[in-house]
Amino acid sequence: MIVVTRLNGTRFAVNPDLIERIHESPDTHLVTLDGAAYVVLESLAEVVELIAEYRAYILSKARDFPAITGYPSAWSGLKTRTLILGLRVVVALGAVLGLMWFLQHRLGKGTGRRRADRALTIVSR
Known about the structure:
This protein has helices at residues 44-64, 74-107; strands spanning 2-5, 11-14, 19-24, 28-32, 37-40. By secondary structure, the chain is α+β, with helices and mostly antiparallel strands. The strands form two sheets. The protein has a three-stranded antiparallel beta sheet with strand order 3-4-5, with no helix packed on it. Strands 1-2 form a two-stranded antiparallel ribbon. The termini are far apart.
């Protein structure tokens, strides 16, 4: 967050990642992505410098963190998610096919029976 000053002297913090544009005419206007506009005492150059300092600060903090090893990478997580999705599709397909088979045999009224199950009648002369 960068801290800027309103025209009445009160200070407030704004997220520089949400600033869409800054213009001076003659006051400095900060316009955010949601359309909110703020009029501040700082000049355009000062606001740009505050944003650059903020981003440099964030980068320096990120470099201070130790490298984390032993955790799966994003790529292996993607492989795992893809595998799980594939297994879910196969299980769902198996459930649908099993249900179709069951309904065919229960509601088919004799269709689908094997020949061995049918009674054979022999009539002699």
